[in-house]
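hey so u asked for the seq, here:
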Amino acid sequence: MKYFNGSLWIMLLLSTFSIALNAQEAKKDNQHLFDDFTYRQGNVYRTASGKPGPEYWQNAADYNLEASLDDKNHSVSGNVTIHYTNNSPETLDFIWLYLEQDRFTENSRGTLTTPVQGSRYSGDIEGGFELTNVSAKTKTGTSSKYLISDTRMQVFLDKPLAAKGGEVTIKMNFKFKVPVEGMDRMGRLETKGGTVYAIAQWYPRVAVFDDVVGWNTEPYLGAGEFYCEYGDFDVKITAPADQTVVSSGVLQNPKDVLTKTQQERFAQAEKSDKTVYIIKPDEVGKPAAHAKANGTLTWHFKMENTRDVAWASSKGFIWDAARMNLGNGKTGLAQSVYPKESDGKNAWSRSTEFTKASIEFYSKTYFPYPYHNAINVAANVGGMEYPGVSFCSYKSTDSSLWGVTDHEFGHNWFPMIVGSNERRYPWMDEGLNTFINHYSTEAFNNGEFSTRMDGPRTLIPYLTSETREGIDTSPEIANARNLAYTAYYKPFAGLYMLREYILGHERFDNAFNSYIRHWAYKHPQPNDFFNHIENVAGEDLSWFWKGWFYGNGNIDLGITSVEPYKGNYLITVENNGEIPMPVELLVTYTDNTTEAISLPVEIWQRGNVWSHLLKTKKLVQRVVVDPNKMLPDVNVLNDTWNKQ
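ran it, structure tokens below
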């Protein structure tokens, strides 16, 4: 028998145990990256497959609105009738409404939490609602009791509203002064031709009651946007007779408010792929541009199955339009209204062309556009979206006008069709919209304009900054300089990587379009999005959602070595980042031929280093990780191996 040194044996045993333990620890360190995520939990309202459940419900609110514009005092007054239906399984003791014009007061939470030096979401402080004749009528009686708390209004009922079909009719009169600076969402602009009024957040609006948090009553502070119920709107707007009014919805009484010439031009525009003037630049301000010279006119609009309406009015509007081809024989009308200051062949005279192209692309690629009109309004608003209406900067030209027009109309899909909660989860509308904007811009006019994002690597300076914040950061809390990244660019990069790098076009597109179809006119949560993408694409992506959407870590893949191994090569790669990713390698041989290698993300379940056997008789000259530069890899120095 060979002699055994007992001490040496113990040392070898301990060494082996230590190596095994270290390997196990390395594996254990990575296990949390691949653990199940809570989003997979489903119920009867929201299934684990990411679809509305068999008992999914949402409440509904239909509105009758009448408003009058006073251009002398810059005020709007009117009344609202809300027919609210409680489809939930709970009885409701009260109804919460939003009074978003109350943001424009000296002591509102939004005013008091805006930096003294100002921000994009600064607003006037001499406004706010004046409310009268408040009532809530059910089949059992009427209540006039209510409580206002900042931008929220709690309307109490005479008796609890029955579950699964209880109805209440809420009425009130309202009045407010139109702010000049409306938090870059609305306001008024003085032009040579007259004031441009961009009117939004203009009526008391029902808050959403859902199966996730109950009443959604977060105050309107600034960066957080909106979460609305769906319903039908009947809107009548009375304005001075020399003004042109445009609104969400379809004009019901064109013969009452348009001249005969304008009606003829409208009919021409409905059949034209080229822009047609409704009001020409040289007609602005002249009596012939209006159906009536003095007094007032009432413009009547209707819109079905929408979450909101907005409108604009001015006597200084140029007005043009063109047909939109929405697929399956359906057409619509793209329109633009803008002052003379915005006119020009490289400016707003292209607005209708841009609007038409944007709507047609999204309608064909993702989901049919549901409305007849898409109206772009030149205003003192940098860019803000409403169903069928966008307010964009009157100063925008060329690529900036395309970018803002395309972005705001893209919002008709997120969140107007897919009704996510913008105030809590801005990435679900801004991020998804920025993502689809990338492809619409690539498609427009054979790439006339460059996209906002030239791949995820443009994010590296932000991703490596010490002040970076995660996607899940509340828009009200996020540093103002970071909001563009947390809500827009980082979510865009995540979706871009999913489509271009992780899943591929076909699997991603099937899942993404299916998500839109199943959640159209409903209220998805982040978990619903994650679940649906996974179930349709057939891929466990928990490691990605956690790392990219709910973490602040980074991606850092690298090549450790390339060595001869038994007549072949052993390529060793490493993961030095906090987010695992599949690995794409491009091998270049000395004869200048190349070979692509794909390694699945599961290699990182076994630790942060992995060796791949490359079977070849050729000589390797160069190996590159992520050769197409799809990943925001924070360390490019270890991405390439070259033969010495």
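The domain at 557-642 is CATH 2.60.40 (Immunoglobulin-like). The radius of gyration is 29 Å.
lmk if thats what u needed
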